[in-house]
What we know:
- The structure is a single chain.
- It is built from 14 helices and 18 strands.
- The protein has 447 residues and is α/β, with parallel strands linked by helices.
- It folds into two domains: 227 residues, Rossmann fold (3-Layer(aba) Sandwich); 194 residues, Four-carbon acid sugar kinase, nucleotide binding domain (Molybdenum Cofactor Biosythetic Enzyme, Chain A), CATH 3.40.980.20.
- Strands 9-10-5-11-4-1-3-2-16-17-18-15-12-14-13 form a 15-stranded mixed β-sheet, sandwiched between helices.
- The longest helix is centred in the C-terminal third of the chain and has 19 residues.
- It is globular, with a radius of gyration of 22 Å.
- The N and C termini lie far apart (58 Å).
- The C terminus is likely disordered.
Amino acid sequence: xxxxxxxxxxxxxxxxxxxxxxxxxxxxxxxxxxxxxxxxxxxxxxxxxxxxxxxxxxxxxxxxxxxxxxxxxxxxxxxxxxxxxxxxxxxxxxxxxxxxxxxxxxxxxxxxxxxxxxxxxxxxxxxxxxxxxxxxxxxxxxxxxxxxxxxxxxxxxxxxxxxxxxxxxxxxxxxxxxxxxxxxxxxxxxxxxxxxxxxxxxxxxxxxxxxxxxxxxxxxxxxxxxxxxxxxxxxxxxxxxxxxxxxxxxxxxxxxxxxxxxxxxxxxxxxxxxxxxxxxxxxxxxxxxxxxxxxxxxxxxxxxxxxxxxxxxxxxxxxxxxxxxxxxxxxxxxxxxxxxxxxxxxxxxxxxxxxxxxxxxxxxxxxxxxxxxxxxxxxxxxxxxxxxxxxxxxxxxxxxxxxxxxxxxxxxxxxxxxxxxxxxxxxxxxxxxxxxxxxxxxxxxxx
Length: 447
């Protein structure tokens, strides 16, 4: 068995960082997601340290700068290899993130170039002849094309990553794929995109990355992270499975406006207890309006949820973000002020604080955070320093425990907004509550 390298992981949002870090944890890496400020202390051999830049919705110049800073910090702290996590549907400032990562990594590796594929076949993301597809449809024709904050206008990777070159590794082995990638880079392309429709093609890409060493910087979604983790970590000891403890109350924070997230929330809300049926969670919903968020007065939203007596019976509290304009505007009265997206995230964090206090603290509470911006705000407000990534409850649904802050030790589940089937959140919540194993007399129907 080998010790494995020291890896740095840079992600544009929190849920994506966790979703990639868990792929490494599954393969025996020590995976830690740093949440606090002040640099990223790295682990030893066989470790992955993930940092979040919050760069997805930033202007290009800012996104490039914060990504470069994150990669530079990881390199200065001893990262031998780096993985750049981007959105699997190419939302946001991807080109600027890639440019910033290369700028910083080239300080120690002047010949570095980016190997990019957002493909995640297990989640329906594929790249065919340089075009990004979601469940077989061109990405701009899906809900991603209507994203209220970072819509994607084209599926053409050459347009999304200007100046890039495209290669296909279909039918190639790792050595041949490495030659293809190196040849494209040698012809003057800093960024080489890779077609991938299967996990096997991602494994071939990862094999090529290993052969090329530190000069090949892998850039992709959690799908590529799976393949790179196994390729970089060949010989690591097998991981010891860790099971999340059952809890008494689950707080589901939904900051994502993606259609998939809304469908999953509707499924959870429809799972209210039914007379004579199997035990189901008692769900309380708190949904502030955009006007309430802008005014900072959340009391009406709390009053609309339930009476205090009914609320005490709830096993699940869902905090639901209101729809917002696209793009999310800054306050017209305060130049450079917070956007609606930032206000909403902070409002959800304030409400989460209140629910945790209402439930008597962190011992019996777990958090399910859907959407990166809200997740970031909740954990920032809690003063958390890091999330130790333990495993995954479902594909694309990692979990871990918090280090530091007022929620130290709390189990946290994260999920990107665009992933999962309709029942995903319901299944995660009922699993945390262990509802299938309770008797009917413990159902707790408040009606």
